[in-house]
Amino acid sequence: MHRLGIPNSKSFYEITSIEEVQRLWETIKEKQEASEWHPGSEEEFEDEEGNVYNKKTYDDLERQGLI
């Protein structure tokens, strides 16, 4: 596992094939990346009226002078 650059965990218990380990590790990495917080799309801003927008929408509306 160390040679493959994969941390050893219970997820890999009883897996003996290198190909299976690599496939499982790719799946685990994809799930971890999907659950990470992305501030550009998930950060929220509130205007004076209490409306909540994501960062991109808030910046666009502010640039247009609507907020």
TrEMBL record:
One of its GO terms (biological process) is mRNA splicing, via spliceosome. GO terms for molecular function: RNA binding. InterPro entries: RNA_Proc_DNA_Dmg_Regulator (IPR051421), SF3a60/Prp9_C (IPR024598). Residues 32-41, 56-67 have a biased composition (Basic and acidic residues). Residues 1-67 form the Splicing factor SF3a60 /Prp9 subunit C-terminal domain. It is found in: Nucleus. Keywords: Nucleus. One of its GO terms (cellular component) is spliceosomal complex. Residues 32-67 are annotated as: Disordered. Pfam families: SF3a60_Prp9_C. Its main location: nucleus. This is Splicing factor 3A subunit 3. It comes from Helianthus annuus (Common sunflower).
